[in-house]
Amino acid sequence: MATLCLSIHLGQAQAAEVSVAVASNFTAPAQKIATAFAQDTGHKAVLAFGATGKFYAQIKNGAPFQVLLAADGATPARLEKEGLTLAGNRFTYATGRLVLWSPQPALVDDKGEVLRSANFAHIAIANPKLAPYGLAAVETLDKLGLLAALQPRLVQGENIGQAYQFVATGNAALGFVALSQVMSEGRIPQGSAWVIPAQWHTPIRQDAVVLATAKDNPAARAWVAFLKSDKARAIIRSFGYAL
């Protein structure tokens, strides 16, 4: 019994926490991965969700994050160049997909012709200056020749999470959101959607990087290793990301 108690105590002593800044679009898969991570490793990932641009500013100002899961590739590269990361650990953990989505079952067609109609008052997008999904939405509307015409009807969220909330709560009838926000187990269970062709916008390559603050944290190394595991990759794929 004493040996068993000692073993449990040592296991708990070796467990650690890692603070992870997560791009809003990756909220659902990150939560699921964090649960599996805790079960498999004993470590705990403490997750914060928000816009990648805001996380960059917070990290520059000394926020105690240890890993960044960004919505782009540029921000982790910039942090690396500025000496705020551990060298040589940046990698792409997912490639995001953009979708035009509405909770209304028949509103969005599979070619996006609804965008040329008067069937909606507002359309939500994320801030294109802060969120790669917002930039992808603007590029898509520009390709369709609809950006100027739809400008008065655009409702802009600070990040892709807020853009999704505008649509989910009915403040906008439809919006450009991350496929991961509306897909689960390989399907979109609610509403109507049009997955935007990937070649219509700048690729949404999402990079992860371990920050310099994680230098002596074994949980940070374990989190990154787990993110690359088959188990985590299966979860990522189930939310519509490419790998």
Number of strands: 10
The name CATH uses for the topology of the largest domain is: D-Maltodextrin-Binding Protein, domain 2
How many domains is the backbone divided into? Answer: 2
The span between the termini is: 46 Å
Q: Record the strand order, biggest sheet.
A: 2-1-3-10-4
Major sheet summary line = 5 strands, mixed
Mean of residue pLDDT values: 92
Q: What Rg do the Cα atoms give?
A: 20 Å
Number of helices: 10
- The appropriate CATH architecture of the largest domain is 3-Layer(aba) Sandwich
The helix-strand sequence is HEHEHEHEEEHHEHEHEEHH
CATH superfamily of the largest domain: Periplasmic binding protein-like II
Q: Identify low-pLDDT runs.
A: 1-13
Q: Structural class of the helix and strand makeup?
A: alpha/beta
Portion in helices: 25-40%
CATH class of the largest domain: Alpha Beta
- Strand content range: 15-25%
What form results from the Cα inertia axes?
globular
